[in-house]
Amino acid sequence: MFPLVIVTNGDAVESFLLRPDASLEGRCLVSKVDGKKNKHFWSKQPLPLQWRSSRLCWAAGATKACWFATFIPGLILIIAIIVICVLNGVWTGGTTALVSGGFGRPNTNALVGEGEYDVQRSPAASSLLANTPQILVSYIYLAYNALFTYMLTTAEWVGYSVHRQSLQVAWPNGHQRARGFLQLPYTYGISIMAASTLLHWLISQSLFPVRITIFNYHGIEEPGSLISSTGFSPYAIVFALSMGGTMLVAALLLGFLRTYPATMPLAACCSASIAALCQPREDMAKEKLTLEKLQWGVVDQGLTANGHDEVGHACFSAKEVTPLITGRTYA
Description:
The protein is mainly α. The protein is 44% helix and 11% strand. Helix 3 runs antiparallel to helix 6 and helix 3 runs antiparallel to helix 8. The chain is elongated and about 100 Å long.
């Protein structure tokens, strides 16, 4: 039975092992990058490829568009806030004045705008202004989460060539594993959610709607003195900027310092490449094969009887496999 919905890499592998795509046979070393270099790549006659071992950093697991979609808006937002704060003298007065302002404390000297007309605005306008950064940060969180999903999905994919494991699918059977509640591994998923929650809270303490009532010396409210405006906290802004910058730096460090094992082509998140790497050559029934613990590797070294090298083949298998050999040809 074929997977009704392809949610994970394991679902895709199971689907293509049960029903291999004959048009992609002979391309067992094709990565997702190969198909993007030439739009006519998949329509060409497949040729055996020579395996060249090279360790790629985690950043290669995500697309350039995903990196730009995460970092360009994030950097623009951080730089814009710093420039606005510097030009308006938000952080003047020294460290003591900065700390004494606290988190989310209304202060008549810390209102957005200048003059009575600029400072006073309707409650709806104050709330909209105060929550605009929250909308922008929510978008950046979605892009940030997608970036890590790309990198970690690729890490999971390469893991099938490092050690034998069962497929992680949406609806498991046999030795198959159920996917987690979160798309990301809990270590990363919960950490990103916690960091995002803290960042949203810091922003809520940095920019917030305020309502100010003026009283006279006798403690009586002055008629028409109610002011609705938007306040800010310089101290909280520093922490919010630091938190946002830390999240971006963490993604850069993980993306460019960690590397994938050089044991198989990076095909995760590309259905054509996954299908090309799922061309089984086993006697076992395909329905039973997908239920076993599998490993991707060389199932046929392509050696002739006299020991001469021919074209080998690599695929997922429930039997013993061997690693790819640098310089040898596979198809």
